[in-house]
Model the fold of this input.
Amino acid sequence: MHNTSTLTKARLFICLFSTFILATGLLFSNPAAYAENTVAREPILVTGHSNPDTDSTASAIALSHLLNQLGKSAVPMTQGPLNPETKYVLERFSVPAPELVGNVANRNIAIVDFTDTPQAPAGFDKANLVFIADHHKLGNVTSSSPLEAWILPYGSTATVLYQVYTYYGIPVPKDIAGVMLGAILSDTVIFRSATATDKDLESANALAKIAGVDDIPALGMKLFAIKSDISQTGSMELLQRDYKEFNMNGQKIGIAQLEMTDSTPALKRKAGFLSAMKDMKEKTHSQSVLFMLTDIMQGNTTLLVVSDNPQLIENAFSKKIVNDEMKLPGVMSRKKQLIPDLEKAFRK
Done:
């Protein structure tokens, strides 16, 4: 028995030692292959854009769950602190907030609600992109290998992901259905935005049924009441709350948006916002920083402008900038009613 036990231990030692030699040999002789093997075993990090909103956060949570159901280990992440509206939605449906993402170099990553690299996390250019879900214009992301991508012209990435759930025949859990519903209501401005589609309404109704929400408009108005309370928040924080950077013909443009049920309190803080915009422009070395103060009840936007070339902004909308602001009646959507005209003006 003693000899047999000793032999078994010896065999185990040899097996473990051989594995160690194989691993370290792979590491030192072919570091790239070792790293690739390690990455393959790590979970997919799912994240939305910088300065996360409700749609990017809910979509990261939803896609992570979906990928796990498909047999792929995934965890939701966020690039920054959550705004009050998003915190409310997660608490309302008892969903934990995602952890903050760090440098994603050499990691598997899935992205939601953006495809413009200025909105990506640190190390994104060295990450392995495996999945995209979005509802914006196609940006400048690239991948080193084939990937799954769902980019559809709906009002919310959560709507896109509901279609993915349906395609795979995977049921949406009650809690995740709730946060997805909140995301659709937030991004479509309770279906008032020019980006809202029949698919958004159809998906919201289905998700509300799963989540047990009987009054969809009431939930939507609660979200915008939270979003509209800016009395205790500083100008720079409000500017950064929904701030996105874009590359337009080689020029860096920052565009923020604040959606409210009444824009009057925000307009009274114009001087503070302009000061914050100038600081942001200098800090980010941007050509222009724009701030959309959007009144969802009136259905219009006051655009605050800080720019090296205000004429370009005026050309984009065929309107004059007066006292650092431009009135845009009927404009509520950054991605559909602002960015296309700006990009066209910057290309000229």
